[in-house]
């Protein structure tokens, strides 16, 4: 019969069951090799050079205006006459405003903006706030509710002003996205040339992936992207929509001459957001076909398509016979 070994004996003999596990402190741990990390980690590593450097000297903070500036008023004096100064908030626009610094003695007034202004006088803090709220899926109503609950203001911006912010923002986002797509295409060309051992490569291999706003087959919006085979970066993207808000507003005048005149101008100017008819499941196929046919505008040709098992996308692409 095997002899029972006590706990103290096992610890003294170095039994594997009771051998303490050595855990190195964080500052002594070696960095894990990138090849052993996940696919997501590799992609993050590849895009480090595309990141914008953070300016640590600039940042935003939420403050209690009365508490902060009532205290500052007891610590500073007017540089002109040594008089007492007061602080007030004026000219509010969204989250931006002017800090009015006034002297009780000499009546000198200085206005200090609470945020830098960009894009023809827009407050940067408003621009950032609108962008972040849109990323979170919230519009003007969400902005108003946030400001109200945080006691920032009873409302954020008027509808026309908010729409102006959105118009500027969409234009900027489109420009930045095109720069990234152009950069990703150049990297994919270089990687393809290196793999094929040629000086240049204008025929690329890509894969496609689509996503919809809703999971069922009734979604009004779909987004499809093309991804470079060697770099794993998005080289092109296209949004398909079965809905246009302006068209919906004019729906009650559908058979009138006024509607026909408006609709012709609406479509000719490119303001109509609806660019898809039919089932939402076909959005991915149609988007891939459109991007393949327009690839020559980017100086390349998407030669090979790597599907994700959706035979409709592949057969639709073959039948379209892109250039």
UniProtKB/TrEMBL annotation:
It comes from the Eukaryota. Pfam families: Mutator. Residues 1-36 are annotated as: Disordered. Residues 18-29 have a biased composition (Basic residues). Residues 1-10 have a biased composition (Basic and acidic residues). Residues 72-320 form the Mutator-like transposase domain. This is Mutator-like transposase domain-containing protein. It comes from Hermetia illucens.
């Amino acid at each position: 019969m095997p002899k029972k070994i006590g706990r103290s004996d096992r610890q003294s003999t170095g039994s594997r069951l009771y051998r303490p596990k050595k855990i190195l402190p964080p500052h002594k741990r070696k960095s894990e090799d990138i090849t052993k990390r996940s696919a997501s980690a590799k992609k993050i590593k590849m895009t480090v050079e595309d990141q914008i450097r953070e300016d640590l000297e600039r940042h935003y903070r939420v403050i209690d205006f009365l508490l902060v500036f009532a205290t500052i008023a007891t610590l500073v004096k007017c540089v002109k006459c040594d008089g007492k100064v007061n602080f007030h908030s004026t000219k509010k626009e969204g989250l931006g405003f002017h800090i009015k610094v006034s002297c009780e003695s000499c009546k000198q007034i200085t206005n200090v903006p609470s945020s830098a202004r960009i894009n023809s006088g827009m407050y940067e803090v408003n621009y950032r706030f609108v962008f972040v709220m849109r990323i979170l899926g919230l519009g003007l109503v969400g902005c108003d509710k946030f400001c109200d609950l945080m006691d920032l203001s009873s409302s954020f911006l008027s509808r026309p002003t908010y729409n102006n912010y959105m118009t500027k923002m969409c234009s900027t986002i489109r420009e930045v996205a095109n720069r990234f797509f152009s950069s990703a295409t150049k990297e994919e060309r270089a990687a393809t040339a290196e793999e094929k051992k040629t000086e240049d490569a204008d025929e690329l291999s890509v894969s496609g992936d689509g996503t919809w706003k809703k999971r069922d087959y009734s979604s009004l919006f779909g987004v499809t992207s093309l991804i470079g085979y060697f770099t794993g970066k998005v080289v092109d993207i296209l949004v398909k929509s079965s809905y246009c808000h302006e068209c919906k507003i004019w729906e009650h005048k559908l058979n009138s001459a006024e509607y026909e005149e408006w609709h012709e101008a609406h479509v000719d100017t490119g303001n109509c957001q609806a660019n898809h008819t039919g089932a939402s499941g076909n959005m991915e196929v149609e988007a891939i076909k459109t991007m393949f046919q327009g690839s020559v505008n980017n100086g390349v040709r998407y030669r090979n398509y790597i599907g994700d098992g959706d035979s409709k996308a592949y057969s639709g692409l073959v039948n379209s016979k892109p250039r």
